[in-house]
Amino acid sequence: AQKITQTQPGMFVQEKEAVTLDCTYDTSDQSYGLFWYKQPSSGEMIFLIYQGSYDEQNATEGRYSLNFQKARKSANLVISASQLGDSAMYFCAMRGYRDDKIIFGKGTRLHILP
Amino acid sequence: DGGITQSPKYLFRKEGQNVTLSCEQNLNHDAMYWYRQDPGQGLRLIYYSQIVNDFQKGDIAEGYSVSREKKESFPLTVTSAQKNPTAFYLCASSIGTDSYEQYFGPGTRLTVT
Questions:
Q1: Phi, psi of A100 (to 5 degrees)
Q2: A residues 30..49 contacting B (CB < 8 A)
Q3: Whether A112 contacts A97, CB under 8 Å
Q4: Using a CB-CB distance cutoff of 8 angstroms, which residues of chain A are in contact with residue B50?
Q5: How far is it, in rounded angstroms, from Cα A78 to Cα A92?
Q6: Tell me, what DSSP letter sits at residue B16?
Q7: What are the pLDDT tens digits along chain B (113 aa)?
Q8: How far apart are alpha carbons A106 and A74 in whole angstroms?
Q9: Which residues are bridge partners to B104 per DSSP?
Q10: Contact, A36 vs A44, CB < 8 A?
């Protein structure tokens, strides 16, 4: 069975510092995709970044990068130069190649302090 | 603008009543999904549909029903059989179920008393 684990229920970070949100996963699939979503207090889910299991380079999208360590089954999200607007819940998610559905971790609540 | 709409944003019902949550998309996506989110929890899949007139149960389908009569619409009915229906419900769509990216609606917060 596939599983996503986010071990940090909450984090407090000073504005402008870099942030790393941890995510580990478990799957027996050889091909899979990993994602991060942001959920502000408004509730809607915002797609941030995607990493394919066969991608050799770590994915980057603006201030977001995904630190993918396949052997360790780790897919940490790095936010550079954090901003007050980054305060939100962040969810790590995964889909296996043969699956029709995505599974989500329980999330990390990030608080950016001014 | 293309996107997903869910209405209403807040919904209140008495225990024992069925309630239907609306989800509409104009992205021309084939696949649509319903998730439930409880406080401090991730998203759990209720039902999903890969194509019109077809849908599959997710991980927590008991007490819920869906229909997919049109590509654009995927309403979710929370029945009186659902023992703990108070939650935040999110609808999503994707080009297909083999697409990695899902687009989410703004969600409906259902409170049953």
A1: -90, -5
A2: 33, 35, 37, 42-47
A3: no
A4: 100
A5: 12
A6: T
A7: 679 999 899 999 999 899 999 999 999 999 999 999 998 788 999 999 999 999 999 999 999 999 999 999 999 999 988 889 999 999 999 887 666 678 999 999 999 99
A8: 16
A9: B92
A10: no
Mutation to test the B interface, candidates A39, A46, A99, most B Cβ within 10 Å? A39
Q: Does B95 touch chain A (CB under 8 A)?
A: no
The partner residues of A91 in beta bridges, in order of sequence, read A37
CB burial of residue B69 (10 Å; 0-12, 13-18, 19+): exposed
Report CB contact under 8 Å: B50, A100. yes
B100 phi/psi in degrees, rounded to 5: -80, -30
Q: Tell me if A101 and B109 make a contact (CB, 8 A cut-off).
A: no
How many Å lie between the alpha carbon of A110 and the closest alpha carbon of chain B? 13
Which DSSP letter does residue A58 get? Answer: P
The residue written with tokens 């687009």 in the block is B103
Question: Residues in chain A, how many?
Answer: 114
Q: Of B106, B100, B3, B103, whose CA–CA distance to A93 is shortest?
A: B100
Determine phi and psi for B106, rounding to 5 degrees.
-75, -15
